[in-house]
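Structure representation.

___
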Amino acid sequence: MNEYLLKARRVAGRAKRRLLGVASATAPAPATTDANWVESAPPPHERMWLAGDKACLICGWTGTGFEPPHGHVEGNRCPRCGSIGRDRFLVHSMGARVAWRPGLRYLETSPRLGDDYRAAMGRWFDYTTSDYDERAHRGSIKLDLQAIDLPDASFDVVCTAHVLEHVPETDKALAELHRIVAPGGWLLLQVPVLQARTAPPTEPEFHGDDTPVFWRFGFDLTSRLRAQGFDVELLVTDELRDLVAAGATRWYAGCSPEFDADALIAGAIGDDLVGVASRSLAARSGFEPAYMFCTWACRKPA
């Protein structure tokens, strides 16, 4: 495709996100204004049931409301640590499945949050960060997920959020992730789930740092993870699990234009869905709307 047309589409995509009031899926979090939480906050698994109108499961903040935009997986920003809804749902998913212990070896690929978050994670875990092209993120090591230059069973937990859609060869990356997870360990995976079944974009697509999108994933990602040898659950909010269990085929309210919410509800496989956030917890933590929040929890058999 013509270089100038590609550039125009990148610019148009950024303009569309600004008009929608939604942050880029790959943009790093803005600098936080209060990093004092790093030294005082307990590990995330001890904050799963925080009280208060709104609460952040990462830094422990409580208050009357998250910062806008609201009603989107890329919104509901914590005023203390800068986390957005999907950041908190990833940490919540980890706490719901991983038994915390000192010295847990933890790799996070292309973490969106900055130095204070990484310092906190370093207090709680034997924490490593990675990135590939370092356009929007920096890691302590550089990794290509399609050919990970690390020994087998290097980590007890690997978290990779909104990265896999930028990797050309999905199955190579999943095989490599399976290889570096220790027996009995976990891969926690998030991708933008905009449609029910996986397909490439119909036209060139880029996130805000000009990173190309190779795949728009759907719920069939579950079977591909199982094919690599993982035991897989798709962690969602109780609301989404209950809608699918009730036989709903449409989302009951308006939806953000980049999501095919009706197809997501109709195409979800009820037996794969595990609810890990009650309606009250989801409301307090900013896990709304329900169709935008899911984490694949993948355990490598011991």
Remarks:
- Strands lie at 54-55, 62-63, 105-109, 126-131, 141-142, 155-161, 181-190, 231-237, 273-277, 294-299.
- Residues 3-299 form a domain with the Rossmann fold fold (CATH 3.40.50).
